[in-house]
Amino acid sequence: MAVTQTFVMVKPDGTKRGIVGDIMSRFEHRGFKLIHAKQLVMSSAMAEQHYSHLSAKPFFQELVDYITSGPVFAMVWEAENAVQLSRSMIGPTNPAEASPGTIRGDYGTSVEANVIHGSDCPENAEREISVFFGQ
């Protein structure tokens, strides 16, 4: 299996709660290698670009408003099968459906405040890495 990269972002609810280090530790313990990381407050334009694939959804503006409401911590992680492995660690979008031991199962409080974003496919990982870190 090839080593690939994925994009992971701790959302404003996670940064406000001070759990960035805990989340990073989970990835490190799972064997991921941290490639890039930075904390920032996303502009509306950046958020709209990040969530462009959801622009037709009725909740799109709520997503943009939420993700720009405070600092996020953006990261690029590398591992074998990085996207699939990180998604299994993160858990389902709804924390009520996420198993204990997953990041959302342990830290998420609602669909809106689910602590973390992770790329859902290699193509989106590449696009999201580009949005946050350039080529």
From TrEMBL:
<comment type="similarity">
    <text>Belongs to the NDK family.</text>
</comment>
<dbReference type="GO" id="GO:0006183">
    <property type="term" value="P:GTP biosynthetic process"/>
</dbReference>
<dbReference type="GO" id="GO:0046872">
    <property type="term" value="F:metal ion binding"/>
</dbReference>
<feature type="binding site">
    <location>
        <position position="93"/>
    </location>
    <ligand>
        <name>ATP</name>
    </ligand>
</feature>
<keyword id="KW-0597">Phosphoprotein</keyword>
<keyword id="KW-0808">Transferase</keyword>
<feature type="binding site">
    <location>
        <position position="114"/>
    </location>
    <ligand>
        <name>ATP</name>
    </ligand>
</feature>
<keyword id="KW-0418">Kinase</keyword>
<keyword id="KW-0067">ATP-binding</keyword>
<keyword id="KW-0546">Nucleotide metabolism</keyword>
<feature type="binding site">
    <location>
        <position position="11"/>
    </location>
    <ligand>
        <name>ATP</name>
    </ligand>
</feature>
<comment type="function">
    <text>Major role in the synthesis of nucleoside triphosphates other than ATP. The ATP gamma phosphate is transferred to the NDP beta phosphate via a ping-pong mechanism, using a phosphorylated active-site intermediate.</text>
</comment>
<keyword id="KW-0547">Nucleotide-binding</keyword>
<dbReference type="Pfam" id="PF00334">
    <property type="entry name" value="NDK"/>
</dbReference>
<dbReference type="InterPro" id="IPR036850">
    <property type="entry name" value="NDK-like_dom_sf"/>
</dbReference>
<feature type="binding site">
    <location>
        <position position="87"/>
    </location>
    <ligand>
        <name>ATP</name>
    </ligand>
</feature>
<keyword id="KW-0479">Metal-binding</keyword>
<dbReference type="GO" id="GO:0004550">
    <property type="term" value="F:nucleoside diphosphate kinase activity"/>
</dbReference>
<comment type="subunit">
    <text>Homotetramer.</text>
</comment>
<dbReference type="InterPro" id="IPR034907">
    <property type="entry name" value="NDK-like_dom"/>
</dbReference>
<dbReference type="GO" id="GO:0006241">
    <property type="term" value="P:CTP biosynthetic process"/>
</dbReference>
<feature type="binding site">
    <location>
        <position position="59"/>
    </location>
    <ligand>
        <name>ATP</name>
    </ligand>
</feature>
<dbReference type="GO" id="GO:0005524">
    <property type="term" value="F:ATP binding"/>
</dbReference>
<keyword id="KW-0460">Magnesium</keyword>
<comment type="function">
    <text>(Microbial infection) Catalyzes the phosphorylation of dZDP to dZTP, when the bacterium is infected by a phage that produces the substrate for the synthesis of dZTP (2- amino-2'-deoxyadenosine 5'-triphosphate), which is then used by the phage as a DNA polymerase substrate.</text>
</comment>
<dbReference type="GO" id="GO:0005737">
    <property type="term" value="C:cytoplasm"/>
</dbReference>
<keyword id="KW-0963">Cytoplasm</keyword>
<dbReference type="GO" id="GO:0006228">
    <property type="term" value="P:UTP biosynthetic process"/>
</dbReference>
<feature type="domain" description="Nucleoside diphosphate kinase-like">
    <location>
        <begin position="3"/>
        <end position="135"/>
    </location>
</feature>
<feature type="binding site">
    <location>
        <position position="104"/>
    </location>
    <ligand>
        <name>ATP</name>
    </ligand>
</feature>
<dbReference type="InterPro" id="IPR001564">
    <property type="entry name" value="Nucleoside_diP_kinase"/>
</dbReference>
<protein>
    <recommendedName>
        <fullName>Nucleoside diphosphate kinase</fullName>
        <ecNumber>2.7.4.6</ecNumber>
    </recommendedName>
</protein>
<feature type="active site" description="Pros-phosphohistidine intermediate">
    <location>
        <position position="117"/>
    </location>
</feature>
